[in-house]
Amino acid sequence: MDYTNFFLMKEELSLIGVMLILLVYDIFSGEKGKRHFQTLALGLLGLHTAVNCLPREAFDAFGGMYSYKPVMTAVKTILSAATIIVLMQVNNWLKDEERRNKQGEYIYLTLSTLLGMYFMISSGNFLLFVIGLEMASIPMAALVAFDKYRQTSAEAAAKYIFSAAFASAISLFGISLIYGSTGTLYFDDLAGSITGSPLQVMAFVFFAAGLFFKISLVPFHLWTADVYEGAPTTVTAYLSVVSKGAAVFVLFSLLTKVFGALMEEWQFILYALVLLSITVGNLFALRQKNMKRFLAFSSISQAGYIVLAVLAGTPQGLTALIYYVLVYACSNLAVFGVVSIIEQRSGKTDIADYNGLYKTNPRLSVAMMLALFSLGGIPFFAGFFSKFFVFMAAAEQGFYVLIFIALLNTVISLYYYLIVVKAMFVKDNERPIETIRSDRPAQIALALCMFGVLCLGILSVVYEGIGQLAL
Amino acid sequence: MDSSSLFLVVLLTGITLVVAGLGMAILISPRSFNLQKTESYECGLPTKGSSWMQFKVGYYLYAILYLMFDVEAIFLFPWSTVVRDLGLAGLFSIAFFIGVLALGLAYAWKKGVLKWM
Amino acid sequence: MYELIINFLEGPVPMEAYLIVSSIMFFAGIYGFIARKNLMMMLISIELMLNAADLNFAVFNRYLYPEQPEGMFFTLFGIAIAACETAVAIAIIINIYRNLQDVDVEELNQLKG
């Protein structure tokens, strides 16, 4: 065996290094050192992102077990940048009396899910893929259960781990059938051996259920709203952006690379799922009273739009997908940033509590408004361009009816995003949320997200850059 | 003797021995009855209360830590079959693997999980 | 009759026999996951499903593709993954038990809407 292969997986190695340094620091530092723990974590993670942000030549390592393509650098950089923003938002929340002793756990668990996603993205074999998938979902359950003494947190965690384990068991059974019918687990070899026999179609459906669960497309979405509501808000932000983004990218590369022979089948399945996700997500979002549940259903319908890019299945679709994930990360993290600041200071999470927010907290309200406009796809915000590119990619493959329905749904989604905006700006409230002074890291995080929401659409160089890598 | 009749012989011998042993015991053993015989045997000490009592749930942490090193063993077995071919590099790989697990144990120790409650 | 039994006992076990066992395990697991109300029983059902997949890997490897031990590797990692899942799930169940004094799924009804 060639041990130099280990040094080829630079991203994973440096992330493991960051985790080990933090773990050792946390074990051996005293009370005094604990105060700088978060700064250290943010600094190391920032360094890790900066070191690994330049794409390299494509290569395979460990006989095809691990495979790297330049476009993966783009995805991994987006995911680690989003993780940094989440960790900035979490800064103040972790300094609470009750959580100060557990800040280390929060950070390793987050980083180990990130590591799992890295492995999942770069896997060239189902074994590494499954390990990555599980590494990304098991620590996630622990994160959801982070508020140990709050019953809703534990309940959400139970719902998450049971649905995740059920989905991954079905997925594993599907992979075992694929192995039985082809005799290999390497993606490169599988591409040639999958012929589209009935057993393989069934195996594919079993396998794909596990991924659909992670993206929370509609028949597999039942856990989403409960988990989003019960989990700590920053964990919800992470779950809705990073976890989803990684899973969608993997879905794209698996479907086009491994299951290319089953194209007709998966296009049919995805067509139905996109249609259901966009529509059902929107209709349920309309009737939500709780902000986090509302965002859960909004994220289900957003997932539908992202998967529309998967349906296209072309390099252009891949570019649109990554661009959509980037824009979605900026807008959604901004919304969750505001929600989590307000929840930390006032404990309020209902939409009705946001009435009259503009009078007391003008800056937070404007930030929230811009982010919601971007999520809704109002022209000249980044969200408009990301939706536009997805529709373009799908139109090239001829999915006109689906695009028409998706456009209709965009109008519905505008309606409910505007309800929140109206609550903040127009409605009066006898007891509005008092004026909040947020902490510095959360402000910086929000400013970064705002920059993304306003500038990503105008800076065409971003889209073109991703397009170059995706070819 | 071919293997099928050998199998039958072994089977019959087994059954005969068990039946004969148990039957003899039933036939010739003296019988007496006292109340102590119906009690469950627990290291010779008389048992107290019902066996459906609850025990301290805190011990599950030890169980989970045990599970960590228990499952580690399934990776040690395949490693042990090829350890000669791998040489020193194999030793370092497995040492790194165990080291990471030990770091987890050290972390739990530091957090006070191993304190006897 | 005698011949039949001896042949069955002496001959190799057909692969289908194992596959039948693993399918029964898998669908029993799905049934248990849906029908049971106790979180522990649901966890056991999930284990049954995971073990069915592991059994499949081992059997396919042994019978169809014995050149490379790929399926066996997958089984080993599958066992490790199942153990991790169980550890986290049990920790969460115990947390719920501490709050509710019960592990019935019907009690998990605070989040809805």
Q: How is this structure best described in words?
A:
The complex is a heterotrimer of chains A (471), B (117) and C (113). By secondary structure, chain A is mostly helical. Helix content of chain A is 76%, strand content 1%. Chain A has one domain. Chain A is built from 20 helices and two strands. Chain A has a two-stranded antiparallel ribbon with strand order 1-2. The longest helix of chain A has 32 residues. Chain A is globular. The N and C termini of chain B lie far apart (64 Å). With 113 residues, chain C is mainly alpha-helical. Chain C has a domain of 67 residues. Chain C is 76% helix and 0% strand. Chain C starts with a helix and ends in a 13-residue tail after the last helix. Chains A and C meet through helix 6, helix 7 and helix 10 of A and helix 2, helix 3 and helix 4 of C.
What can be said about this structure in brief?
Chain B has 117 residues and is mainly alpha-helical. Helices cover 65% and strands 0% of the residues of chain B.
What are the SSEs and their pairings?
The complex is a heterotrimer of chains A (471), B (117) and C (113).
Chain A: H1 10-28, H2 31-34, H3 37-51, E1 59-61, E2 66-68, H4 70-94, H5 103-122, H6 126-144, H7 151-182, H8 187-193, H9 198-215, H10 224-230, H11 233-257, H12 263-286, H13 291-312, H14 315-346, H15 357-360, H16 362-376, H17 382-396, H18 400-425, H19 440-455, H20 460-470
Antiparallel strand pairs in A: 1-2
Helix pairs in contact in A: 1-3, 1-5, 3-4, 4-5, 4-11, 4-14, 4-19, 5-6, 5-11, 6-7, 6-11, 7-9, 7-10, 9-11, 10-11, 10-13, 11-13, 11-14, 12-13, 12-18, 13-14, 13-17, 14-16, 14-17, 14-19, 14-20, 16-18, 16-19
Chain B: H1 3-28, H2 60-86, H3 88-110
Helix pairs in contact in B: 2-3
Chain C: H1 2-10, H2 15-35, H3 39-63, H4 70-100
Helix pairs in contact in C: 2-3, 3-4
Number of strands of chain C: 0
Largest sheet of chain C: none
Helix/strand/pairing category of chain C: mainly alpha
**Helix fraction bin of chain B:** 55-70%
Class per helix and strand makeup of chain B: mainly alpha
How many helices of chain C? The count is 4
The number of helical runs of chain B is 3
What is the ordering of alpha helices and beta strands of chain C?
Answer: HHHH
Average pLDDT rating of chain C: 87
Provide the succession of SSEs of chain B.
HHH
Rg over C-alpha atoms of chain C, rounded to the nearest angstrom: 19 Å
Shape descriptor of chain B reads: flat
N-C termini distance of chain B:
64 Å
Give the averaged pLDDT of chain B, no decimals. 81
* Largest beta-sheet details of chain B: none
**3D shape of chain C:** elongated
